[in-house]
Design goal:
The structure holds two protein chains of two kinds. Chain A has helices at about 15-25, 40-50, 65-80, 90-105, 130-135, 145-160, 190-200, 225-240, 240-255, 280-295, 310-315, 340-345, 370-385; strands at about 10-15, 30-35, 60, 85, 110-115, 140-145, 170-175, 185, 215, 260-265, 270-275, 300-305, 305, 325-330, 355-360, 395, 405. In chain A, the strands form four sheets. In chain A, strands 10-12-11-14-15-16-17 form a seven-stranded mixed sheet, sandwiched between helices. Helices cover about 40% and strands about 20% of the residues of chain A. The termini of chain A are far apart. Chain B has one domain (about 15-315): 3-Layer(aba) Sandwich (Rossmann fold). Chain B contains twelve helices and ten strands. Chain B has helices spanning about 10-15, 30-40, 55-60, 80-95, 115-120, 125-130, 180-185, 200-215, 230, 240-245, 275-280, 295-315; strands spanning about 45-50, 70-75, 110-115, 135-140, 170, 170-175, 195, 220-225, 255, 260-265. In chain B, helix 4 packs parallel to helix 6. Chain B starts with 9 loop residues before the first helix and ends with a helix. Classes of the chains: A alpha/beta, B alpha/beta. Chains A and B meet through strand 3, helix 3, helix 4 and strand 9 of A and strand 2, helix 4 and helix 6 of B.
Chain lengths: ~400, ~325
């Protein structure tokens, strides 16, 4: 090895960006093609600095746009090696064309998405608009709630994405600023443990195998396009979840940290619950505990895997509950929220009689406070007591001006 | 060591095995396949190729078939150059890390794209690749029009040409803008080598491609590709059109080394009037109406001026 290992403390004080950058280093990523954008920039800056300091070997290609960043990642992945990058918001939006190309070409790439609002109006703070924009792009999407998750889930992402039965790119989401720029204690793996977990990259259909030329990115029309898309969807729906579960199990053996496809908190006897993503999961858990002291049996379900959507796991987690709030941190712009719709789809045709209502919150970095969640849980309990949804189906949390609610 | 392929004459060329199969869907008389064969036949080294969305791409990799006997990638319309740059970066990374399966090879990285994918939508990506110094060659198959989508004007479409989005009509002579000077723009990135080539002058082309493969850093090649469908000439006349293009000096053949040293590589013994070049193509037919004849004169003056400028640059070495 022509690069130095790094001695880490058992617990390092890292923000989410630093944690992700360290995971890229420990995974010994071969090529990072990247373009800077707030708040994800420190991830790729981190890789560049590790390279400059001799803590990793590889190529850092600082391109001229996010579209080019993902284009370069696609070329590098097709060539046959470990590839990762990071982006946010407008950069993610510019990347969208290539996101579909990366997944359709069945190339393992890890993309750290530090979630941020989409303009207009321009906004640098965290919400899930970018994450939602990519939800049909054919990528696996994992969600981190804190810097520790952002670190661990990168290893999971490489492991699953590069599996030869999967061969699909994977995003690791974390909330802009609240996770990406907030330092917390992060339990580390040693360099050997981390690399041992993700393993040496195993190439497949690699362009750089000169004895076996390959053609990547073909044309298909009505005769074959559907078969390709259907097969990709089938693999997402049937192959990915078991691989994620295996990776979670293996990771728990290595680190002692247990991840679940759906993260249930106090759900075994819950009457009311919130389903949400990102940093809101931790806030909701704290409030749920406090609600129990007030006599409301509250629970929280966090999505760990956003795509493929865990239909069965989430229906199972919600089967005994009486009222559910779906929290969407993205403006649905003319529909119910994504999470509301997915939950409705997962629960329909099951035996549940649960009442489902939707909330839109936190756009452009607006805080979701404990007080907001207290009144939300209280509303859910009112629904339970009344035996029906007593509020409009879709409400905004914490927006100024006249109360906005729909449906 | 890199290995040039030495083909002595056209007969040998026609029978030489190459890595681009004749089984493709390009139009009869299309110059693209001729240019691609000439580029690929310049080397015996391994090739990593890309094509941007366009005629070449849609006609050579229709699942479950491929015309490519070398690794090839297509992502989208604008990013073929960056696709190959990404592969080249991975090559460098794996070479450093000692993980190449065949470490003794000298692969060449080449992206092919039309003028639309190079002059217009892919311009930024190519500029980025040139600026960053990737060891790649970008070859423009310049037919001066969006041929794959049915003949819309690009910024390579020359003045007076009738394209579907700049059609000639009772009140218009067609395209109003002059062709973008892409070779100069790319040379201004101070890349080690940029050149204009034509399929009819295949020895000149092969020499330039081989030079391009020998330098360290990005190479830009602009290849004139007469388009039977959009230029509107008989498919059997492709090479005749290429001859008219080079011999009228509408497509002068030259190279620029390190961004400044310009060499004219072909001087026609007899310079053909531009009028003959225009008259051979349906896309310029309307220019021969009385009211547009001044445009033909202006065409000739522009070509003469550009030729004089190239000669001055060659002489001045700037």
């Amino acid at each position: 090895m022509a690069f130095d290992k790094m001695e880490l403390q058992k617990i390092e004080v890292w923000d989410g960006n630093r944690a992700a950058a360290q995971a890229l280093r420990q995974s010994q990523v071969d090529v990072v093609a990247a373009y800077p954008i707030t708040p994800s920039t420190p991830i790729v800056e981190g890789y560049a600095k590790f390279l400059a300091d001799g803590y990793i070997e590889g190529e850092f290609v600082m391109v001229e746009s996010e579209h080019a960043a993902m284009s370069g990642c696609i070329g590098a992945a097709a060539a046959g090696g470990r590839v990762a990058t990071a982006t946010s918001s407008q950069g993610y939006a510019l990347m969208v064309e290539t996101l579909y190309q990366a997944s359709g070409m069945r190339l393992p790439i890890v993309l750290n998405v530090v979630n941020r609002a989409l303009a207009a109006p321009l906004n640098v703070n965290g919400d899930h608009s970018d994450m939602y924009l990519g939800r049909d792009s054919g990528w696996i999407q994992l969600d981190a709630y804190c810097p520790q998750d952002a670190y661990d889930l990168n290893f999971i992402a490489f492991k699953v994405s590069e599996d030869h039965d999967v061969r699909l790119p994977c995003m690791v989401h974390q909330d802009g600023f609240i996770t990406s720029h907030t330092a917390q204690g992060v339990h580390t793996l040693t360099d050997d443990e981390a690399y041992g977990f993700v393993g040496e990259y195993q190439p497949m259909n690699d362009m750089l195998d000169f004895e076996h030329p390959v053609t990547h990115g073909v044309q298909t029309e009505e005769d074959w396009h559907f078969e390709h898309k259907a097969r990709q969807h089938n693999d997402l729906m049937t192959k990915v979840m078991p691989k994620i579960q295996t990776a979670f199990d293996d990771f728990e053996k290595l680190s002692g940290r247990k991840y679940n496809i759906v993260e249930s908190y106090d759900m075994s006897d819950a009457d009311v619950c919130v389903v949400c993503m990102g940093t809101s999961v931790e806030t909701a858990r704290e409030v749920a505990t406090e609600m129990r002291a007030k006599g409301i049996k509250a629970g929280v379900v966090g999505l760990r895997v956003i795509r493929p959507f865990p239909f069965f796991e989430i229906a199972e987690a919600l089967k005994g509950v009486k009222a559910i709030a779906a929290l969407d941190r993205s403006s649905p712009n003319g529909a119910a929220g994504m999470l509301f719709n997915e939950l409705a789809g997962a629960l329909f045709n099951t035996g549940t009689k649960a009442l489902l209502s939707g909330y839109v919150y936190g756009l452009g970095g607006r805080d979701l406070t404990k007080a907001h969640l207290v009144s939300l849980f209280t509303e859910l309990q009112k629904n339970v007591d009344a035996g029906k949804v007593t509020t409009p189906l879709q409400q905004f949390i914490g927006v100024r001006g006249p109360k906005l609610s729909f449906l | 060591m890199s290995e040039n392929k030495n083909i002595k004459n056209l007969k040998e060329f026609s029978t030489s095995a190459d890595r681009f199969e004749g089984a493709n869907l390009l139009c009869p008389g299309c110059a693209h396949s001729i240019i691609v064969r000439e580029v690929l036949n310049a080397t015996n080294d391994d090739l990593i190729l890309s094509a941007s969305t366009g005629c070449l791409e849609v006609c050579t990799a229709v699942y479950p078939y491929t015309s490519w006997d070398a690794s090839w990638i297509h992502i989208g319309f604008e990013n073929g150059s960056t696709a190959v740059a990404g592969a080249e970066s991975m090559y460098k990374a794996l070479k450093t890390k000692g993980r190449l399966k065949q470490p003794d090879r000298n692969p060449k990285f080449v992206s092919f794209a039309g003028d639309g994918a190079s002059y217009d939508i892919g311009f930024q990506w190519i500029s980025g690749c040139m600026e960053r110094g990737h060891n790649i060659m970008h070859v423009v198959l310049d037919n001066e029009v969006y041929a794959n989508t049915g003949g819309q004007r690009s910024s390579s479409t020359p003045i007076g040409s009738s394209a579907t989005t700049s059609p000639e009509g009772r009140r218009s002579y067609g395209e109003k803008k002059n062709k973008k000077d892409m070779v100069s723009i790319m040379a201004s990135h101070n890349i080690p080598y940029s050149a204009q080539v034509a399929p009819n002058k295949w020895k000149d082309m092969v020499k330039k491609i081989q030079h391009g493969f020998s330098v360290d850093g990005p190479v830009f090649i602009n290849a004139v590709s007469p388009c039977t469908t959009e230029w509107k000439f008989d498919p059997k006349d492709t090479m005749h059109l290429a001859d008219l293009a080079t011999d009228s000096l509408v497509f002068p053949l030259y190279e620029i080394i390190d961004g400044h040293e310009l060499n004219i590589t072909y001087r026609p013994k007899t310079v053909v009037p531009v009028e003959e070049y225009l008259a051979a193509q349906g896309r310029f037919k309307h220019l021969f109406k009385d009211e547009y004849k001044h445009l033909i004169k202006e065409w000739q003056e522009r070509v003469d001026a550009k030729w004089a400028q190239l000669n001055r640059r060659e002489e001045a070495r700037v």
